[in-house]
Amino acid sequence: MSDEQRPAGSPEPAGSPEPGGSGSGAPGRGGPERGGPEPAEIRFFGTTWVHHDGGYGLRRAGVAVGSLALAAAGSLVLRFAFQGLEIADVGPFVGILVVAGFAICSALAFRRTWDGFVRRPDTAARSAADTSSQGLMLIGFIGSLLAYLCRSLVEAPGETLHRAEYTAARERYERRRGARTGNPAAKKSRPKKRR
User: Fold this and answer.
1) How far is Cα 49 from Cα 159, in angstroms, rounded to an integer?
2) Burial of residue 124 (number of CB atoms within 10 Å: 0-12, 13-18, 19+)
3) Span 5-14, mean pLDDT?
């Protein structure tokens, strides 16, 4: 992205190649990712998921502990809200509805968050689904936090999806690069076959 296209005040992306540069992002760095597509950043992890460096293990532990702590705090707040309903003496039916509503919304939010780690949703259906499920995700925030907890015990949340996309982009780049590296002079010097 050129300086004219970048919004004012936004920092230059890390690892972005200089115009006319080698595209490695760092001078003198001769890693396997010279040029080509850059890996996407994952929230709380940046690009440490690519090589599992830069405190990747500590970040995973931090995300797991943080999401567990936030889920526990959210459960405590919901408990206070439920005690308020008991004090108001609204009846058992309303209490059952509230508990069932939060449980269902949490389960749906868990599933939606987990699916977001595994595959990209269809872009056409994404906008309509996102606007209709914002309230559901807000009510079921505990389910989303638990999805982060469970996924961070295995990997960085969304790492499998990002790794598959990054690997596919690298392979496409290498194929295009391999097709361009042929000798153009040899192609011109070949005589055409007559029929």
Assistant:
1) 7
2) exposed
3) 43
